[in-house]
Amino acid sequence: MNRMTWVDNLRGMSIIAVIFLHSTIAVAGNAGHLTGLTQVINHLLEPIRLGLMFFVSGLFVESGLKKGKELFLRNKVKSILYPFVIWVAIYGGLKIIFNSRSNNPQSPLNIILSHLSGGGDITWFLHSLFIFFLIIPFVRRIPIYLVIPVSLALSSLLPEIPSDSIFSGFDNSHINKSLYLFPFFYLADWLVNRKMNVLDVSTTPKILITSLLAFVVLSGVDLFIGAPDRAWQAPLALLSIPFFVWIAAYSNIALITFIGANSIVFYLSHYLAIQAFAKVIKVHSESLWFHDALFFAAFASALAVPGVICLMRKFGLLNFLFTMKKKSPESVRATS
After folding, report:
1. Transmembrane ranges (predicted)?
2. How many CA atoms lie within 13 A of 149 on its CB side?
3. Calpha distance 246→248 (Å, rounded)
4. Which of 54, 183, 231, 280 has the fewest CB atoms in 10 Å of its CB?
5. 336 in a domain, yes or no?
């Protein structure tokens, strides 16, 4: 296996999990015969789904800093802050244009401020990721036994943004969510900074079995007990990472690798298809088979739109939507 293939696979698995979640949202949770299954899958993957993406991003901190802090920052501006601004303009602009048809109308200022402050529907990921890259050169000097507990405590204890605030958005707990996800990013950098081979460590039998048991316990707690909040899930979710690294290492599905290699395209653009699908397809039917087909159509469209964009990027088109870097599309990574 290519040295980076497992990284692309891990990133691709995370993106597919996100697309799967949004596909269920596109059909208002009614996936026909699959409704129960989709609910269970989305519930079980919630503690780890986005954590895997941030973990992958953290793997590249060390190599980036070795090039110098100035170049490190410049690269993050080009590959993260730049597409954040572009897609805030796209999603924020669409929300303003179709605001009158929204179930929860907002003022244009509210829409703009909520997106720019990290409360955008899909762009919040890049907002948090850019901040993580800004602070990691300083935070990585602090012991892990302080960073992770403090981050999770803040995630649990900080109040949400008030719903009547001008900064309120689709998820007023996005700051809490980012604090929950920071340990995934930090842990990856911590391992690389200590010269540990993440793949080798993750596939060590004792580590792998412990990780599998952690995910089983996490799943059992989520399904049958329920955690008070996401911060309580984090220790088990972090311990579950080697299990998913192992899956990524032995996956041989070209689609997953392709999605991971083009993660920024699939992450940012799939939601356009989801939103269009949810607004255009409003046919009511009592048939479960009809809703089965509707769910698969939503999922397929959320893969097809980014896929077409990836094809266009091979011909040098639409590259400006995702990066300022002057590189071939295949070499551009959102988190490298």
Report:
1. 47-65, 77-98, 122-139, 204-225, 231-248, 255-273, 293-312
2. 5
3. 5
4. 280
5. no
Residue located via tokens 């409704």: 35
- The token pair at 320 is 């400006």
> pLDDT tens digit string along 256-280?
999 999 999 999 999 999 988 887 7
Tokens of 308: 């077409």
How many domains, in total, are found in the chain? 1
Given its phi and psi angles, is residue 150 left (phi above 0), alpha (psi -120 to 50 degrees) or beta? alpha
This prediction's pTM: 0.92
Integer Cα distance of 176 and 161 in angstroms:
10
Name which of 236, 308, 246 is nearest 272 in CA terms: 308
Distances (CA, A) of 252 to 9, 35, 264, 333: 9, 28, 21, 20
Is residue 327 left, alpha or beta, with left meaning phi > 0 and alpha meaning psi from -120 to 50?
Answer: beta
CB atoms within 10 A of CB 177: 17
Across all residues in the chain, what is the average pLDDT?
90
Amino acid identity at 313:
R
**Nearest CA-CA partner of 24 in 8, 3, 40, 6:** 40
Nearest one of 304, 242, 237, 295 to 269, comparing CA atoms: 304
Reported confidence tier of residue 1, pLDDT bands at 50, 70, 90: very low
Long-range contact pairs involving 318-324 (C-beta distance under 8 Å, separation at least 24): 320/86, 321/83, 321/86, 321/87, 321/268, 322/83, 322/86, 322/264, 322/265, 322/268, 323/78, 323/79, 323/82, 323/83, 323/264, 324/77, 324/78, 324/79, 324/82
Q: What are phi and psi of 101, to 5 degrees?
A: -95, 0
- Could you tell me the two tokens for 183? 């340990």
Q: Let me know if residue 109 belongs to a domain.
A: yes
Q: In whole angstroms, what is the distance from residue 74 CA to residue 79 CA?
A: 9
The domain in which residue 96 lies consists of: 5-331
**Mind giving me the DSSP string for 224-255?**
II--SSHHHHHHHHHHTHHHHHHHHHH---HH
Amino acid at 184: F
Position 41 in a domain: yes
Q: Are 114 and 124 in contact (CB under 8 A)?
A: no
